[in-house]
Amino acid sequence: GEGDEVIALTIPGEPCGKGRPKFCKVGKFARAYTPAKTVNHEATIKQLFAVHYPDFTPLDGPLLMSVFAYMSIPASASAKLRAAMLACRVWPTKKPDADNIFKLVADALSGLAYGDDKQIVTAQLHKFYSDRPRLEIYIIPKSIIPDDGSGKSS
Are the CB atoms for 111 and 58 separated by under 8 Å? Predict the structure, then answer.
């Protein structure tokens, strides 16, 4: 990362949220583990990042991360409902939750795209319906954003 680089990454497939840790008993003890679905989705994001950004040095400094989650349209949707979904007149107010999608992406890219997800100072998650379910991830160093609209210079 040169510090002025914008990262853009598309992850094909149905967006998934970060699963809560599950617990199992090992003898007398409870052990926490990450659900397999979460592990697999994080691994996919890590692999695609590595393919698109080989030899990348993680960005440092404050970052904006914007994630666009395109959810598949249910097969049961009528033609009229389907059209409304594609035109953003009907929104995906179903699971996964926006914050869980963002958390999964932020955790997956920590140590790869940036040193630590605490560097994300502006977080945006947008959910839409689409015929092509996917995640689109954009990471922008705050240093190259001209004005955030707050009236304060950075």
Answer: yes
φ/ψ (deg, to 5) at 117: -70, -5
Secondary structure element (H or E) that encloses residue 84, with its range: helix 79-86
One-character DSSP codes across 28-80: TEEEEE--HHHHHHHHHHHHHHHHHSTTPPPB-S-EEEEEEEEEEPPTT--HH
- CA–CA distance, 51 with 62 (Å, rounded to integer): 24
- pTM (2 decimals)? 0.83
Residue 121's CB is within 10 A of a number of other CB atoms, namely 12
The distance of Cα 12 from the centroid of its chain, to the nearest Å, equals: 12
Read off the pLDDT of residues 111-147 as tens digits, 9 standing for 90 and up.
999 999 999 999 999 999 999 999 999 999 999 887 6
